[in-house]
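Quick question about two entries, pasted in order.
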Amino acid sequence: MTPLDDWILIKRLEEESISPGGIIIPEISKKKLYVGTVCDIGEGSYAGCPHCECPHCNRDLIKSDLSVGDKVFFQRNSTVDTDEEGYLLIRERDILGIGKHESS
């Protein structure tokens, strides 16, 4: 799947199933983390009026500040589930912050 415009494809990071003390944590007790790793990035968004093609509108492409592999924190209700397990689509404006870069 390739995201369009300012959409970002992320893979949700899951909480560990075993505690540091070796206790297995059941699924029902896990809290959902709103953290993921960027897998693919759309081309960006356009500046100016989004509703018309008038000549006085500035339609410059604004590229994303994100990179593939970035760890991102996102809003709870801002994602779109995909058919693939663990992958979400989110608009760049709904990303709250960027963590350390994940090495592959």
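Here is the second entry:
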Amino acid sequence: MTEKKLPPYKQPTNFREFIQQICLRPAMYAGTYDFYKACIYIEGYNSALLDHKPEAIGQADLRGFYLWLAHKYGESPSIAWIGTIRNYCNDDESAFEQLPILLDEYINQLTDQES
């Protein structure tokens, strides 16, 4: 892992910002710089968010993300989104860089379909 200067911490106000903050500072959320552990944290947060704030569906819903990724990369939909991203990245650092980009692309596509 290359040490890099991080921007000042900003309290997330939505799910996208939350993912960006986790990817910038995974050890702060998951206790270690580990893509899998940080993603498990994201999964738990996402599940709780959807259980308690159903209006977040579409903005924070990861249920279709794995199918979208499988289609995008030509992978089997039986592989979790975490594994798909990690399989296409050389290391955790690049996986943390790609996750917010891919999630933005997915959410934007959902938003475009609703319009």
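Reply: The chain is about 65% helix and 0% strand. The longest helix spans residues 92-114. Hope that helps.
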